[in-house]
Amino acid sequence: MKEKDFFKQKAENYEKETKKVDNVKNIAKLILKEMPYKRNMHLMDFGSGTGLLLSNIAPYVSKITAIDISESMSKVLRSKKDKIPCILEIKKIDLSKETLCEKFDGIISSMTIHHIKNIENIFKKFYDMLDTNGSIAIADLDLEDGSFHTEDTGVFHFGFNRDKFLAIAKKVGFKKLKIQTASTIEKPTGKYLVFLLTGVK
Q1: Domain span at residue 150?
Q2: Smallest Cα–Cα separation from 157: which of 137, 140, 174?
Q3: Of 5, 144, 179, 197, which sits 20 to 30 A from 165 (CA to CA)?
Q4: Is residue 58 part of a domain?
Q5: Of 123, 157, 154, whose CA–CA distance to 143 is shortest?
Q6: DSSP, res 14
Q7: Running DSSP on this structure, what letter comes out for residue 97?
Q8: 110 in a domain, yes or no?
């Protein structure tokens, strides 16, 4: 049975939504403030979409492996590949079900974890895929009432309680954990806070 691509109708116009672009810029700005990335580093962007986040991080690292299960979103990213100022590898893989036998210096992610059913399982995979002293920089929604998503995009969590989210990362083994507000998204349905969790292996 073929997996549903929840973003098929949204991919081409995804980056025309100013609020989405601004939100990711805010997240990227805080990631770059918190993370001492170096030009020889290889990162993974989990749930890379059209590449909004990695485009902001690319000038500071050597290579980014973009992971996403949406073929339509990755197609948009592929069309921008020549404009990304680092080596870019794009892979279609469902990390909630499959394993990627590769090591990274860091993992970044924006607004993707609420689409993952088993949070502890994905954090364990992140931990295993990182080299020693590798880092995570994961942005997602604060707990909300379900009004953030007005359409079905395969959502398992209406945001997260920050303490519980941080506790899962700690349980898996991450150290130097920090969680802070990265951005605010304003919609007709309300204002939604976005946090950034950072930590190291």
Answers
A1: 11-200
A2: 140
A3: 5
A4: yes
A5: 157
A6: G
A7: T
A8: yes
In the predicted model, what is the mean pLDDT of the chain?
88
Say which CATH number the domain at 155 has: 3.40.50.150
Residue at token pair 């009004």:
147
Q: Quickly count: other Cβ atoms within 10 Å of residue 140's Cβ.
A: 25
Lowest mean pLDDT among 148-152, 172-176, 184-188: 148-152
> In angstroms, rounded to a whole number, what is the distance separating the alpha carbons of residues 197 and 165?
8
Tell me the per-residue pLDDT of 105-126, one tens digit each, with 9 for 90 and over.
Answer: 999 999 999 989 999 999 999 9
Beta strands in the chain (DSSP E): 42-46, 63-67, 87-91, 104-110, 130-141, 175-187, 190-200
- Distance between CA atoms of residues 72 and 38, nearest Å: 31
Q: Is residue 128 part of a domain?
A: yes
Residue written as token pair 């976005």: 194
